[in-house]
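hey so u asked for the seq, here:
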Amino acid sequence: MFLVRLIYASKVSDMFLPGDIDNILATARHKNKKSGITGMLCFNSEYFLQCIEGTRSAVNKIFSEIQKDTRHDAIMLISYSEIFSRQFGAWDMGFISEQKLKKETIIKYSGNDIFDPYSIQGESALSMLIEFRDYLV
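ran it, structure tokens below
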């Protein structure tokens, strides 16, 4: 069984409604638990940055579903790699809300004080997500 980690960024689309983040999390946690997927999601009302870990087939299937979700726009694959172990194995889908996105950490990994996942390289995105892991909900 091959494990992979996928990190992507996307923008909130015009189809996104205020309560959608709760729906996204509930659906993801339910599906992920059944599929053996783990990971985390950072969200700031404008952007998503998500890490998904699991078997290659499960991760590819989930990412394909995300690409069809009309609440996401401009989806960009930031990183995709085979892994030996999970970084977010304790969470079906951990969540970092805008209030918990630490400015110092964002600056450290992106050079900006504004959370914009499109400006972060793959390894930096993973390092930032690992640092945010302590604040997961």
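The chain has one domain: 3-135. Residues 28 and 130 are 20 Å apart (CA to CA).
lmk if thats what u needed
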